[in-house]
Amino acid sequence: QVQLQESGPGLVKPSQTLSLTCIVSGASITTDNYYWSWIRQPPGKGLEFIGFIAHHSGTYYNSSLKSRTSISWDTSRNQYTLQLTSVTPEDGGVYYCAKLLKNWLGYDYWGQGTQVTVSS
Questions:
Q1: Are 88 and 16 in contact (CB under 8 A)?
Q2: pLDDT at position 56, please?
Q3: Whole-number Å distance between alpha carbons of 106 and 101
Q4: What is the band of 105 on the pLDDT scale with cuts at 50, 70, 90?
Q5: How far apart, in whole angstroms, are the C-alpha atoms of residue 103 and residue 89?
Q6: C-alpha to C-alpha distances, 7 to 44, 57, 92, nearest whole angstrom
Q7: Mean pLDDT, range 43-70, rounded to an integer
Q8: HEC profile for the chain?
Q9: Half-sphere exposure for 106 (CA within 13 Å, toward CB)
């Protein structure tokens, strides 16, 4: 059973960098064809894909966020990290890490989500 757990600060100031970590258990993040992703849900809005990292294909980002997004990993700790720079209040919401299925067939495992507020 794959489990994912997000961690990171719940409050970030505008213009700063948001950094969240997803700890994965039950599977190696270096397994081919496993896409370790980040998704967010702003208040009152739908889910928004942010990006993923995969051992066999590297990283891929939502084009609307690409200039501010970086996803990296620590394979020794089996975890991956999201960094989103120059945040504004519009970047607030619930952030999820999730395992994306091949060919964009959905997500089969999710973290519980972590609330992020951007405010001074």
A1: no
A2: 87
A3: 6
A4: confident
A5: 32
A6: 23, 25, 15
A7: 96
A8: CCEEEEECCCEECCCCCEEEEEEEECCCCCCCCCEEEEEEECCCCCCEEEEEEECCCEEEECCCCHHHEEEEEECCCCEEEEEECCCCHHHCEEEEEEEECHHHCCEEEECCCEEEEECC
A9: 2
